[in-house]
Design a protein that fits this description.
The chain is mostly helical and about 400 residues long. It is about 65% helix and about 0% strand. The chain contains 22 helices and no strands. The two termini are about 60 Å apart.
């Protein structure tokens, strides 16, 4: 209906996502575009950028392009916000040259929209080059300084620092921040916020594991003790665990663990599991409740060989044991283990599952299970012997390495 389409339009303008399948119907999409087209041009210019950005975020690129054309065909200048959103759409559609040209045009201004265009331009260029040219770095620095103390200013500062250092040069970026803090030319809280954001976003495998670890160890003394740093500490601990340095996580998480921060305790447990300390992981989260804690308990129990306990933790987390047939196999819960990644084990699990748990009998690799023939004979005995040997081979294969 027209009313329903208008509601969808206004929800997109307010930044709310569509419900699954809400815009799948071709008629619904047409009505959505019609609702936009019937708005006065001034309203389209005001709401258009927000709607376009929401559609791009949701991956509705064809619908976004159709909506863009509805306003672009109207006479007049539709403003820098519209050009910026249109540039983002162009990049998302693979038209990077067109998008970059739009960002450059908008970035010539001095308002916040121009600053956002600088960020978009930096993101685009950093995605294909390791560092930014000096002109763009300087522009980011000027815009960041003019907006000191604001979220936008800090985003600009992060982009400037990473542009100066290089996308994969975490150590250089942290060196830049340390030098800036010593120099006193920037707000210290802005530099701290920039450092936290860089640490949250940095990925050890992208930076290079040894380089990542060296950068963290060289700059860990700059990590603040306040709760503002918890997100960064957790991110760093998880990255260290991912590259086999879980033992260093306790040092990184120290202040957050001392406060009993939930996120830090979960990260600490992940680190202990990574280094094989299952009991330490269980102790770390002993009083925590919730699905995230239960999933970690399942991992810790499994690492400790307590497979039945691991399945119980999965159930408490709301996860079906059948989703982890490897655990079900080791716990002897045969009805849940039949999808295990081994034909021999799957067949044995099906054979061992009580009859009342099966929907229908299945021969499987062990052959049909049925009553013995009433009158033994030499040929029958030979057949039973061969079947027994086959079954033994299957069972030995199933039990191998497991």
């Amino acid at each position: 209906s027209d009313v329903g389409s208008s509601v969808l339009l206004w929800r997109a303008a307010a930044g709310f996502s569509a419900e699954p399948g809400e815009r799948d119907d071709p008629d619904a999409r047409k009505a959505f575009l019609k609702a936009f087209e019937t708005l006065p041009v001034s309203m389209r210019r005001m709401l258009g950028p927000k709607i376009l950005d929401r559609l791009v975020f949701e991956g509705e690129l064809d619908l976004a392009e159709a909506l863009r054309l509805l306003l672009d065909r109207a006479a007049g200048d539709h403003g820098d916000a519209w050009r910026l959103s249109s540039g983002r759409l162009a990049v998302a559609r693979g038209e990077t040259s067109r998008g970059e040209a739009m960002f450059l045009a908008v970035a010539e201004g001095r308002d916040d929209t121009a600053a956002e265009a600088l960020l978009a331009l930096a993101d685009l260029r950093m995605s294909r080059d390791d560092a930014l040219d000096q002109g763009l770095v300087n522009a980011l620095g000027v815009a960041a300084t003019a907006r000191g103390g604001t979220q936008l200013g800090r985003r600009l500062l992060v982009a400037e620092i990473m542009g100066r250092a290089g996308r994969r040069e975490l150590g250089v970026a942290l060196d830049v921040i340390e030098a800036e803090r010593r120099g006193g030319g920037r707000r210290d809280d802005d530099l701290e916020a920039a450092m936290r954001r860089i640490l949250v976003e940095a990925k050890a495998m992208e930076v290079e594991p040894a380089g990542y670890a060296a950068a963290i160890m060289a700059h860990i003394s700059q990590f603040g003790p306040s709760a503002d740093w918890d997100e960064a500490r957790v991110a760093v601990a998880d990255q260290l665990s991912s590259i086999g340095l879980g033992n260093a996580a306790d040092d990184v998480l120290g202040p957050a663990l001392a406060r009993g921060a939930r996120s830090a305790r979960l990260a600490g447990a992940r680190a202990k599991i990574a280094v094989g300390d299952a009991s330490g992981a269980l102790a770390m989260i002993s009083s925590l409740e919730g699905p995230d804690a239960e999933l970690l308990r399942a991992d810790a129990y499994a690492a400790d060989g307590r497979h039945a306990a691991a399945l119980d933790a999965l159930r408490r987390a709301g996860v079906a044991p059948a989703s982890r047939p490897d655990l079900a196999w080791r716990a002897g819960e045969w009805s849940e283990a039949q999808s295990v990644d081994s034909e021999a084990r799957s067949g044995l699990a099906a054979w061992l599952t009580p009859a009342e748990s099966q929907e229908a009998p299945s021969a499987g690799p062990l052959g049909p299970i049925g009553p013995l023939p009433p009158s033994p004979s030499l040929s029958t005995a030979r057949g039973l012997l061969e079947a027994s040997q086959d079954a033994r081979a299957v069972i030995e294969d199933a039990l191998d390495d497991g």
